[in-house]
């Protein structure tokens, strides 16, 4: 490839998505990551793409809704270009209703979803199904048709493959040419914090487990703070912890044992499933807890995309779009609360 027009530092979900959006618009793109594709938290196993509750609407919630609705076309295009699976499927989500107060709130939210989501998706309260369903004390569940799933590591590898197929480069080292986009996750937040008078963001550790259990085609489950996600490859992922303080970022421990025990208590069908993998990683969370996008606050002329935390994969399609608008066309469609200076 001749001189790059865009150099993206970081081959996680944000960096690869921005690179994909740029290369699709005809830009010459280079992605550089010394650790390789999906080496950090983007190489995880859970992949729950779930919406915020349809109430107290904000720009952040609207942005996420737009992104979730863009996701099918986005990931279908990636799969076609790369020839690789992403694990994407919009199969919905079941949540048990705990008590009368929760039932009343769920019905209220069903009405607000009709207003806020329109015909794009539904939030329904219905009888709990037999079999693949968490324990439902009221015999009722919330089923939303907006939630989707993908396999994080597979999706990142497919993105990298699609970028290369379109003429882009994925490198462990190389020259930074053209517009430079910093998508360096936890390390990037630490670097910005070191250049500022207070913490710009931090890493939050998560632990998850992958089971050998075939439930493809079934909705994901959410209960007791857990995401239970059936993948297309005959596995089920369960996660995750949320640890602000930790000593071993890549190690699993008794906290993951507790996650699995709670999942089995809610869905006894999983009790005999074989454990395939235990995973731990550190997710980047910006100070505002919103994604951190736009002009880099400490690197003149450069850009930043960081702070995906738990919603990075769900936000990626639209973040890729608005960052490509900014980097390639100089057009800023980034919501005010996502602007990088908000996290300073």
TrEMBL record:
Span of domain FAD dependent oxidoreductase:
6-326
Tell me what organism the protein belongs to.
Litoreibacter albidus
Q: What is this protein called?
A: Glycine/D-amino acid oxidase
Q: Which Gene3D superfamilies match?
A: D-Amino Acid Oxidase, subunit A, domain 2, FAD/NAD(P)-binding domain
Q: A GO CC term?
A: cytoplasm
Question: Which terms in the Gene Ontology molecular function aspect does this entry carry?
Answer: oxidoreductase activity
Recorded hits in Pfam families, A to Z, give:
DAO
Keywords noted in UniProt: Oxidoreductase
């Amino acid at each position: 490839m001749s001189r790059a027009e865009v150099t993206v530092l970081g081959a996680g979900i944000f960096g690869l998505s921005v690179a994909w959006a740029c290369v699709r618009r005809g830009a010459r793109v280079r992605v550089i990551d010394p650790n390789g594709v999906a080496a950090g938290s983007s190489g995880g196993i859970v992949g729950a793409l779930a919406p915020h509750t349809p109430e107290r609407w904000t720009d952040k919630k609207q942005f996420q809704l737009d992104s979730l609705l863009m996701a099918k076309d986005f990931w279908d295009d990636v799969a076609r270009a790369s020839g690789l699976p992403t694990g994407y499927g919009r199969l919905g989500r079941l949540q048990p209703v705990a008590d009368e107060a929760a039932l009343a709130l769920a019905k209220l939210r069903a009405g607000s979803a009709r207003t806020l989501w329109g015909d794009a998706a539904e939030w329904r309260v219905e009888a709990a199904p037999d079999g693949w369903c968490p324990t439902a004390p009221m015999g009722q569940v919330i089923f939303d048709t907006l939630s989707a799933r993908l396999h994080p590591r597979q999706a990142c590898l497919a993105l990298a493959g699609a970028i290369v197929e379109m003429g882009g480069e994925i490198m462990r080292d190389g020259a930074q040419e053209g517009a430079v986009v910093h998508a360096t996750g936890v390390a990037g937040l630490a670097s910005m914090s070191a250049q500022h008078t207070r913490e710009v963001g931090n890493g939050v550790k998560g632990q998850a487990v992958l089971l050998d259990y075939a439930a493809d085609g079934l909705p994901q489950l959410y209960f007791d703070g857990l995401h239970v996600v059936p993948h297309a490859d005959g596995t089920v992922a369960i996660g995750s912890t949320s640890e602000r303080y930790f000593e071993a970022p890549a190690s699993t421990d008794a906290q993951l044992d507790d996650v699995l025990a709670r999942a089995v208590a809610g869905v006894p069908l999983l009790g005999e499933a074989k454990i395939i993998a235990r995973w731990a990683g550190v997710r980047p969370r910006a100070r505002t807890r919103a994604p951190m996008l736009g002009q880099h606050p400490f690197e003149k002329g450069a850009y930043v995309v960081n702070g995906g935390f738990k919603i990075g994969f769900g936000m990626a399609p639209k973040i890729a779009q608005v960052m490509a608008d900014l980097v390639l066309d100089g057009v800023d469609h980034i919501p005010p609360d996502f602007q990088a200076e908000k996290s300073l």
